[in-house]
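To whoever is on call:

I kicked off a structure prediction for a single chain this morning and the downstream step that reads the tokens threw a length-mismatch warning. I double-checked the sequence; it's 274 residues and nothing unusual in it as far as I can see. Pasting both halves so you can look.
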Amino acid sequence: MLNNTDYDKFRDFLKKACGIVLGDNKQYLVQSRLRRIMAEEGIATVGELVDKMNRSIRNPLRESVVDAMTTNETLWFRDVHPFRILEEKILPELLSNKSLSQIRLWSAACSTGQEPYSISMVYDEFKRRNLGASRASLNIVATDISASVLATARKAEYEMLAIGRGLSKERMNTYFTKTPDGSWKVKPEICRGVDFRSLNLMDSYSLLGKFDIIFCRNVLIYFSAESKLDILKRMHAALKPGGYLVLGASESLSGLPEKYEMVHCNPGIIYRAK
């Protein structure tokens, strides 16, 4: 059983390492996610694990623990509305500028790749439906703190169970090919514009460049109010003037009226950078 002292010690470590705040009574989650790592390392207690990780800022054990605690399941076209808003509002607005040669989009906390690949599919469908639209390319920078989910995302190959979560049969047949082992691989034309990178949202975004759109969905709920505010300020700096920030369905932006303007899309809300 994970005692309160060791639990608090681990909570403090996780917040400092990646900004994620564990709530009360999450001992079972910590134990279940760390059980295999502790067994492999021959570590008896979570307190001992934290001590070992703190001896060195850069070590494989520390990376494995953060990886285990930040890996979450995701869906294709999760929540639906953001993808509809992207296709019906944001893309037509951006592409009305005929001189635009590239749209840059950041998929923050992209997990195993479902979000950026879903966005790439939306853009392909938009171009098919609007043959006279701009020929601007779409560059998606997809980031996550977890090395294991990024490896899965880059491989772009999914088991049938993962494919079935939010993906229509039509899209599956259009954008995937079946592999000899029975899994499904995203077609090269959908992968081509997606650039996967390792990034801790608590670190600098300066090397990412500027974006027309940022998708940062279902991740800010894990951060403290202070860290969330800091992330949103720095995302504003990463957006081009008039660029759009798309948050998760259960997330809202408050306290930054000087940086973002709320845009009602009925249904759904997005935020325009001032």
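Update from on-call: the warning came from a stale cache, not from the record. Cleared it. Sanity check on the structure: The mean pLDDT is 92.
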